[in-house]
Design brief:
By secondary structure, the protein is of the alpha+beta class. The chain is built from seven helices and three strands. It has a three-stranded antiparallel sheet, with no helix packed on it.
Length: 231
């Protein structure tokens, strides 16, 4: 039976007694700490050293997004990585026990007791296209917590499926264009096979369809082709 889920309320009602009052307080810096402290040690530092060794001590060009994140991590003590891991574990244990618990029988059909559905744009419903010819603000440190990070913190499978399309008036083409409408399906930890089987069954039943290349999820004309550049 479908029922709405409010993670904020669920956390407040069932969280560990020693945990912070809100998920934002628990996980606000967890993601940026984990990615920055790990990447600098495992990726940046050895890459910089290898690059400098063959380029007379030079630094390579790096995209601004990881630079911002690495710089933040450099300002944090090494102990912050331990705290971030602990906070991630607190959320993972709570989520996998209270939201998406798994069955002991561990079969592919009933591995997860529940299935979580959410939309990536549920907080701002409607079509809000991101045009590529609009300059955006520079990258920032990815603080905070949202539904898109549930799978990251809880180590559960999250699969995005297209369920339809929504039209909008394009300021570029001056025509009504469409964007896909998608839903995320999330199941309990270790129940990947159950999720894949479910998606396959929904596709075979005609409820879901395989997205095609083109203007719509069903295909259609491609407005810009490599061979057309320069026309």
């Amino acid at each position: 039976t479908p029922s709405p889920l409010n993670l904020t309320s669920s956390w407040s009602a069932t969280k560990p007694s020693s945990a912070p009052a809100t998920l934002q307080e628990l996980l606000n810096t967890t993601y940026p700490i984990l990615i920055s402290k790990q990447q600098t040690r495992l990726v940046r530092d050895p890459f910089y050293a290898a690059y400098a060794g063959v380029h007379d001590g030079r630094l390579p060009f790096v995209d601004p997004a990881p630079l911002v994140r690495w710089a933040y991590g450099d300002t944090q003590p090494n102990s912050s990585l331990i705290e971030a891991r602990d906070n991630k574990t607190v959320f993972m244990d709570w989520f996998n026990s209270n939201v998406l618990p798994t069955n002991n029988n561990d079969t592919q059909e009933t591995c997860s007791e529940n299935i979580l559905l959410y939309s990536a744009n549920s907080e701002s419903p409607g079509v809000d296209p991101a045009y590529r010819n609009i300059y955006k603000d520079p990258p920032t440190v990815p603080f905070g917590f949202g539904t898109s990070r549930i799978s990251v913190f809880a180590e559960v499978p999250d699969f995005v499926v297209p369920v339809g399309e929504a039209g909008y008036e394009s300021v570029v083409t001056n025509h009504t264009e469409v964007l896909p409408v998608t839903v995320d399906l999330v199941v309990g930890r270790g129940c990947d096979g159950m999720l894949f089987n479910l998606i396959e069954d929904l596709t075979n039943a005609g409820i879901l369809s395989v997205s095609q290349t083109g203007q719509t999820i069903k295909g259609g004309e491609i407005l810009l082709k490599r061979g057309m550049v320069g026309l």
